[in-house]
């Protein structure tokens, strides 16, 4: 089965991390965001991924081909970002008539029983109840079937949010509907929406059902990325390495190529390949590939690729009943 993964987004809310790398390759809980997604697709029979790429598309393709050699990779460039509906439409020439398609957003890590959803053999969309549905696309049901899809409505009729996982039984019908929407220039907030294409499929008689998503993380900004890192490390509990001369506090994910000396690492730390850490204390943080960190205490921090972070230690002789603040501007209350 083929899966469409739109990964052309630039990740503006994650800058400066995404100034020099695609959002989907940002490290979290031991691997890039995209790696977590692909780990969830292979067990349900996905053997080809269609990557809708933009800037740094070659890096994304290189990562998938190197890390998932059994997957066939097809890359389609989206030169101009015109919305999710347009991104999915770009894959039209890769699919044969009547071929099904699994669509998964390339920046959303999810936990769901995909196998059960696919076994049903009907078009289906992943949903989860949320307290703030106006911030999401939502579905309105008629019994078990989807009656209507709405993109971030001001007055949402339900609290069933669209998570970003779609199974379409007849991809040719979806591509025809998206083609019509683009030809008629039907946009919402300046973009062609996938929900409009799915809605038109429903109007043509396609049955669309839902399946529950247990959890999902959109990794949209640094705070959410760190929260995702904590939750995934807590859930997956990777084996913690024994590091001579350093202390590791689980849960952590440390790439075997990382060099760590005289440091305390964890909890909730993700260390990517090629990272060097010396004489530091690091907790609740993510260190991307090739980063160098020395003589610092990092907490709730993200260090980008090949970044160099250095601090310094101080030697003090401080008298009784004294107060001193080191590292930044202190103030007395």
What can you see in these coordinates?
With 333 residues, the chain is an alpha/beta fold. The protein has 2 domains: 2-217, Spore Coat Polysaccharide Biosynthesis Protein SpsA, Chain A (Alpha-Beta Complex), CATH 3.90.550.10; 239-310, UDP N-Acetylglucosamine Acyltransferase, domain 1. The protein has 7 helices and 22 strands. The strands form 5 sheets. It has an 8-stranded mixed β-sheet. Strands 13, 14, 16, 17, 19 and 21 form a 6-stranded parallel β-sheet that branches. A 4-stranded parallel β-sheet has the order 15-18-20-22, with no helix packed on it. The longest helix is centred in the C-terminal third of the chain and has 15 residues, at 222-236.
Briefly say what this structure is.
The protein is α/β, with parallel strands linked by helices and 333 residues long.
Write the CATH architecture name of the largest domain. Answer: Alpha-Beta Complex
Strand content: 25-35%
Query: What is the spatial order of strands in the main beta sheet?
Result: 5-4-1-6-11-8-12-7
Specify Rg, calculated over alpha carbons. 23 Å
Q: What order do the SSEs take from the amino end to the carboxyl end, as H and E? A: EEEHEHEHEEHEEEEHHEHEEEEEEEEEE
Distance between the termini: 63 Å
Helix/strand class? alpha/beta
What value does the average pLDDT take? 88
- Poorly predicted ranges: 329-333
Shape: elongated
């Amino acid at each position: 089965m083929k899966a469409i993964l739109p990964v052309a987004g630039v990740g503006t809310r994650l800058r400066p991390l995404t100034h020099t790398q695609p959002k989907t390759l940002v490290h979290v809980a031991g691997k890039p965001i995209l790696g977590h997604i692909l780990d969830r697709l292979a067990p349900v029979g996905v053997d080809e991924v269609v990557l809708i790429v933009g800037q740094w598309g070659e890096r994304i393709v290189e990562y998938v081909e190197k890390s998932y050699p059994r997957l066939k990779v097809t890359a389609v460039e989206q030169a101009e970002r015109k919305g999710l509906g347009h991104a999915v439409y770009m894959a039209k020439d890769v699919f044969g008539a009547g071929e099904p398609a699994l669509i998964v957003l390339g920046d959303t890590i999810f936990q769901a029983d995909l196998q059960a959803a696919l076994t049903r053999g009907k078009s289906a969309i992943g949903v989860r109840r949320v307290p703030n549905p106006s911030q999401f696309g939502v579905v309105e049901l008629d019994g078990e079937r989807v009656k209507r899809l709405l993109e971030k409505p001001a007055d949402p009729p339900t609290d069933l949010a669209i998570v970003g996982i779609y199974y379409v039984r007849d991809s040719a019908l979806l591509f025809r509907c998206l083609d019509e929407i683009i030809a008629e220039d039907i946009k919402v907030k300046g973009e062609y929406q996938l929900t409009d294409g799915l809605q038109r499929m429903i109007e043509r008689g396609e049955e669309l059902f839902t399946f529950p998503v247990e959890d999902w993380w959109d990794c949209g900004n640094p705070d959410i990325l760190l929260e995702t890192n904590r939750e995934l490390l807590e859930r997956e509990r990777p084996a913690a390495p024994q590091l001579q001369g350093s202390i590791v506090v689980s849960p952590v994910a440390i790439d075997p190529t990382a060099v760590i000396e005289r440091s305390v690492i964890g909890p909730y730390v993700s260390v990517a390949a090629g990272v060097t850490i010396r004489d530091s204390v690091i907790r609740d943080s993510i260190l991307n590939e090739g980063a160098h960190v020395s003589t610092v205490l990092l907490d709730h921090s993200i260090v980008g690729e090949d970044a160099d972070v250095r601090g310094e230690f101080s030697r003090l002789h401080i008298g009784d009943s004294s107060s001193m603040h080191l590292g930044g501007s202190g103030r007395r209350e």
